[in-house]
Specification:
This protein is α/β, with parallel strands linked by helices and 336 residues long. 43% of the residues lie in helices and 11% in strands. It is built from 14 helices and eleven strands. It starts with a strand and ends in an 18-residue tail after the last helix.
Length: 336
């Protein structure tokens, strides 16, 4: 496979290195070698940290089977440069390579440059969770999914990945797609990493950094009341009373977010469960009771749906080194 790694000023050296390591490590343990080149509108280009990378002419990408678009460290500065000569030339090279049959893959915020081609319009795409809302705002035609580690649209020959090390997952998936599972496993073993990781990037989003919340500051009291008594039943009538609105008005506010009150409440309970799994020694069953789920099974069901991994796997990955014993709250309600 002929692989061209696009490089322009401001790209992450780490992303570029991922592509070189996965695709350019040569034949290892039976995995086929690829022909890899770094291409760009300038020679050399300046990457993050002041690193300089020599490049071959952009025209080299026209013969590639795969073109890799690394991400950018300073997204604001990079977006401003997309209309410069180098940015315009890079976008044109991507369109040309794709028209000749190449697959295109963006790593992390490289999705913003790939989006400028228009090729992602109508497709599902992902990027680093921190920048997903911005990608959606700038390119409403794209169906941005902030939960995925990577996404592949075979019909469009497009790949997009989440942030930073998710680029490794994505490049290994491409090796598996092109060369087969055995080849991907061989490359992963050579890099001393798993060939695939469980779950999506939702597990890496800080619990209180969810993009969806009530739109009005007047609902702060509702959030506080619910958060202070999650183990209690919270039917619609009680939620509306806490928010000082009618049930119909409350439903209308939630509908504006594409949510139901019950769905929002489940989200609040899962967030609280994440925080307890990170900070406490409570069992999963105890966590379920503290946050208002009737059982560990119900917690697992909603947790996997929203966070992409099980509570046990989440705790193994994110529990603090100094978890604490959490006392039983006084006046505890039964789960509703």
């Amino acid at each position: 496979m002929r692989v061209a790694i696009l490089a322009i000023d401001g790209m992450r050296g780490f992303d570029l290195s991922i592509a070189i390591e996965v695709f350019g490590s040569g034949a290892v343990d039976g995995a086929p070698a690829n022909e890899v080149s770094v291409v760009g509108p300038a020679d050399p280009v300046t990457l993050t940290g002041g690193m300089a990378a020599p490049t071959r002419p952009l025209a080299t990408a026209s013969d590639a089977d795969l073109v890799v678009v690394p991400g950018f460290a300073d997204l604001d500065a990079s977006l401003a440069g997309f209309d410069d000569a180098d940015g315009v030339a890079a976008v044109a090279a991507l369109v040309d390579a794709h028209s000749r049959g190449a697959q295109l893959v963006s790593l992390c915020t490289g999705a913003f440059l790939l989006a400028r081609t228009g090729l992602l319009d109508g497709a599902r795409a992902t990027t680093h969770w921190r920048h997903a809302a911005r990608l959606q705002s700038l390119h409403p035609e794209i169906r941005v999914d902030a939960t995925a580690i990577y996404l592949h649209d075979p019909a469009r020959r497009l790949w997009t990945s989440a942030g930073v090390t998710a680029g490794v997952d994505t490049c290994l998936a491409i090796v598996r797609h092109v060369h087969g599972a055995a080849a991907a496993a061989a490359v992963a073993r050579s890099m001393v990493i798993p060939v695939a990781r469980s779950g999506g990037q939702a597990q890496f989003v800080p619990p209180r950094a969810r993009p969806t919340d009530l739109p009005d500051a007047g609902f702060d009291r509702l959030r506080e009341l619910v958060g202070s008594d999650l183990s209690a039943p919270w039917p619609l009538s009680r939620l509306a009373t806490a928010a000082h609105v009618s049930p119909r008005t409350l439903q209308r506010h939630f509908a504006a977010l594409g949510l139901r009150p019950s769905g929002w409440l489940v989200g609040q309970r899962v967030v609280a469960a994440q925080e307890l799994l990170e900070s406490s020694r409570l069992s999963v069953e105890q966590v379920a009771g503290r946050v208002g789920f009737g059982s560990a099974d119900l917690l697992r069901k909603h947790f996997v749906r929203l966070v992409s991994v099980s509570p046990t796997a989440y705790r193994a990955a994110f529990q603090r080194s100094d978890p604490v014993d959490v006392p039983e709250p006084s006046g505890r309600h039964g789960a509703g």
